[in-house]
Automatic annotation (TrEMBL):
It catalyses: D-fructose 6-phosphate + L-glutamine = D-glucosamine 6-phosphate + L-glutamate. Residues 286-426, 458-599 form the SIS domain. This is Glutamine--fructose-6-phosphate aminotransferase [isomerizing]. The keyword Repeat applies. One of its GO terms (molecular function) is carbohydrate derivative binding. Its EC number is 2.6.1.16. Keywords: Aminotransferase, Cytoplasm, Glutamine amidotransferase, Repeat, Transferase. It comes from Aliidiomarina sanyensis. One of its GO terms (cellular component) is cytosol. It is found in: Cytoplasm.
Length: 609
């Protein structure tokens, strides 16, 4: 994780670097730092806490310069201290920012200590600083020193380095952590995400795995993994950074929750037509590939994994293909069986999550028929490395807790269900039903947001609780899991989700009045079964909060609060029922006073294992 920004220009760059860091804070926010080259040499400024703490320190000190590198950190090696914040210096002349993990850092540290280098931090990154310094001592160029350095590194890195003896030059290396070069006129930039650079350029070059490059004010020189000088295509980005900020909303998360009807409309625009879904939305080769697909293997992390779990229910029921879903960090390290005609589907908001990307790369060696990624970032590694891709078009998601990315993923997955069903002999009525349900979905999402006030009131009852249990059945079970994840992420209340039928095999033992039980209860064929589970909780003195279909005939009483939602086709019910659970977590977090958009210990984009 961590965010990186670099700039080399004719003008002073501290402001550009700072704005870049603010935009990258979603990648980590436990400390931030900057190194700037000026007539005084290389100056460093670092602060524990958010980027604002660094901004205040810059204001006080007035440090600035015409080239510099900056970093916002999510701690992996070494605690959250100023000494562990980046940039890391060597000998006062060279500064390094790094994203990723150097796995052989202990061996390198011992070797460098033997050479007389003194380590001032507990980070793995500091080995890069001293290795670079050591290589430079041999009299080579900055870029050659970097080439020699990366040969000694094992693990993942996106790194940018500057040295006072090479004014105006930044050298960069990418292996396992994304980096993009932004091109200006008489100035150039580097960042771990193009979002950081949108105020200064729209022209980008995406470094490939294994690339090393030198970036000066007027030149970019890139060498690939084989040491060949290469050029990388210049792409003009039309990405919109959320220029309006939070708008009328108090937090990005709330804004993103409310954006969902619009975001889903965007996802579907031009892709669902009357009774059909447009298979080309998955790529030009989609039709040819989908015809061969007999099995789907989904791999993802976090919220995206929950989207995959919902899709499994859908795919087996409506597309007639078998489906497995697995957490990427497990999938990548075990020997799995590849069924003939398998499509590997990765789901990711960012397209850069380290474990999911590694799973995709592994799958490509395992004999899958093809790979598809469902992703929100068109330029991401996963999109670029998959045979097929479906862009969710949710727009930038800033809140660490994922909301609109999830519901747009589900909309895309439902399209996939229709498309695979079509080539698998499923009755065309199913595709027509999916297409219809999707077209009316944005309106249902709008309606679901109207119960905000009711949920705000409900949230009061949760704020002093330490534990909670979420229940659902069928495709609402993963929605219960997602509801529990949201609550724990932003309110820090312990939340667990169970398939309601599993209650009696353990969790019933936990039920008492101090353990609120949240039930997701649309009107579907499992409703009566779910009602029995509700009675099991009631009989043990549990207090329940039931999100139910108006037609499901649940009635509020002293042990149960019912929050009614309009009836929707059960196909899209998992998407609709997600919204009240997101709102519930949000309002509980507000009462608890947590940092909603940047909850403790978490980061939006997890680009390390
Ligand atoms: C982090 C985020 C989650 C997200 C997960 C997977 O943990 O905090 O919100 O669901 O990564 O991210 P991806 O970008 O692959 O969907």
């Amino acid at each position: 994780m961590c965010g990186i920004v670099g700039a080399t220009a004719e003008r002073r760059v501290a402001g550009i670097l700072l704005e870049g860091l603010r935009r990258l804070e979603y990648r980590g926010y436990d400390s931030a730092g900057m190194a700037l080259a000026s007539e005084q040499g290389l100056q460093q400024i670092r602060r524990v806490g958010k980027v604002q703490a660094l901004a205040d320190a810059l204001d006080e000190t007035g440090i600035n310069g015409k080239s510099g590198i900056a970093h916002t950190r999510w701690a992996t090696h070494g605690g959250v201290t100023e000494a562990n914040a980046h940039p890391h210096f060597s000998n006062g002349t060279l500064a390094v920012v790094h994203n990723g993990i150097i796995e052989n850092h202990e061996t390198l540290r011992r070797k460098l200590q033997g050479l007389g280098y003194e380590f001032l931090s507990q980070t793995d990154t500091e080995v890069i600083s001293h290795l670079m310094h050591h290589e430079l001592e041999k009299g080579v160029s900055l870029l050659d020193a970097l080439k020699a350095t990366v040969k000694q590194l094992e693990g993942a890195y996106g790194t940018v380095i500057m040295d006072k003896r090479y004014p105006g030059e930044l050298v960069v290396a990418r292996s396992g952590s994304p980096l993009v070069i932004g091109l200006g006129i008489g100035e150039n930039f580097i960042a771990s995400d193009q979002l950081a650079l949108l105020p200064v350029t729209r022209e980008f070059m995406y470094l490939e795995e294994g690339d090393v490059a030198s970036v000066t004010r007027d030149a970019v020189t890139i060498f690939d993994v084989d040491g060949q000088e290469v050029t990388r295509e210049v792409v003009t980005s039309d990405l919109q950074y959320d220029a309006g900020g939070k708008g009328e909303y108090r937090h990005y998360m709330l804004k993103e929750i409310h954006e969902q009807p619009f975001a889903v409309r965007n996802t579907l625009e031009g892709r669902v037509n009357g009774d059909k879904v447009l298979v080309n939305a998955f790529g030009e080769e989609a039709e040819a590939i989908f015809k061969d697909v007999k099995h789907v293997q989904i791999v993802a992390c976090g919220t995206s994994y929950h989207a995959g779990m919902v899709a499994r229910y859908w795919l087996e029921q409506y597309a007639g293909v078998s489906c497995n879903v697995e957490i990427a960090s497990e999938f990548r390290y075990r020997k799995s069986h590849v069924f003939p005609g398998s499509l590997l589907v990765t789901i990711s908001q960012s397209g850069e999550t380290a474990d999911t990307l590694a799973a995709l790369r592994l799958a490509k060696t395992l004999g899958y028929r093809s790979t598809l990624t469902i992703c929100n970032v068109a330029t991401s590694s996963m999109v670029r490395e998959s045979d097929l891709s479906f862009l969710t078009r949710a727009g930038a998601e800033i809140g660490v807790a994922s909301t609109k990315a999830f519901t747009t993923q589900l909309a895309g997955l439902l399209m996939l269900v229709a498309a695979l069903g079509r080539y698998n002999g499923v009755d065309r009525d199913v595709e027509a039903r999916i297409a219809h349900a999707l077209s009316t979905l944005p309106n249902h999402l709008e309606a679901a947001l109207k119960i905000t006030q009711e949920i705000e009131a409900l949230a009061e009852e949760f704020a002093d609780k330490e534990h909670s249990l979420f229940l659902g059945r069928g495709e609402q079970y993963p929605i219960a899991m997602e509801g529990a994840l949201k609550l724990k992420e932003i309110s820090y209340i312990h939340a667990e989700a169970y398939a309601a039928g599993e209650l009696k095999h353990g969790p019933l033992a936990l039920i008492d009045a101090e353990m609120p039980v949240i039930v997701v209860a649309p009107n579907n064929e499992l409703l009566e079964k779910l009602k029995s589970n509700v009675e099991e909780v009631r009989a043990r003195g549990g207090i329940m909060y039931v999100f139910a279909d108006r037609d499901a005939e649940f009635a509020s009483d002293e042990t149960m609060r019912v929050i009614n939602l309009d009836h929707v086709d059960e196909l899209v019910a998992p998407i609709v029922y997600t919204l009240p659970l997101q709102l519930l977590s949000y309002y509980v977090a507000i009462i608890k006073g947590t940092d909603v958009d940047q909850p403790r210990n978490l980061a939006k984009s997890v680009t390390v294992e």
